[in-house]
Amino acid sequence: MKKLVYVIGFLLTFQNVSAQLFTKEKVTNAVDNIDKKPVTWGYFIGFNQYDFNFDYNQNLDDILVETTAGFHLGLIGDLRINDYLNLRLEPGVFFTTRNLQYNESYFSGIDFNNSDLLREVKSTYVHVPLLLKVSTKRINNFKPFIVGGFSAALNLSSNADNPNDNSANEFRMTRTTYFYELGFGIDLYLLYFKFTPSIRGIFAMNNELIPDADPNSPWTGNVAKMQTRGVFINFTFQ
Prior knowledge:
Layout: H1 2-12, H2 18-21, E1 39-56, E2 64-67, E3 70-80, E4 85-89, E5 92-101, E6 118-135, E7 142-155, E8 176-189, E9 194-204, E10 223-237
Antiparallel strand pairs: 1-3, 1-10, 2-5, 3-4, 3-5, 4-6, 5-6, 6-7, 7-8, 8-9, 9-10
């Protein structure tokens, strides 16, 4: 349902600009020159939904991940290579929350209460991707593209230096995560600026879980690897 809401919101952004986008003539103003500049700048805002992918040591019940909608914003630096290729740096700040729900089978033979079955993982990422944007030829007032690259993210809420672990209700993650990213979007040439809605998926390449001191911990003992994955919906202004 949440993903459906995102898609609907993404489509509704076109309503107010449809008259400009589908006219037979290109918008004629300073925006036409933006693609010829060697370096351009902009900013983006958007929504995100982060998830976790788990690999397990033993075949027990899955740890369920309840995702929530997050928010992000940042800046864009765009280096033109040619008419179809651009190198982009998009540093931003991303806010998200994920709730981990453990099955009671993880606590077999251990005294526990209901609060032990839930871990709230709040994350604030400083996310810095380096991306290659591959565009088609401009068609009237819009230009589709695909984008991909690699990124690093600093998790300011990782608890990596906290000596306490889940036995003290502290869930810990690594401070730095590395991702690869893939997405697509469309440049829309409006009267005074270029507006770009896009969708991008991110996939962590390293294990982000810091295990508890107890190797048999019910929270981390059965987790071989925990990696972030997520979806971004971006709205860019240049």
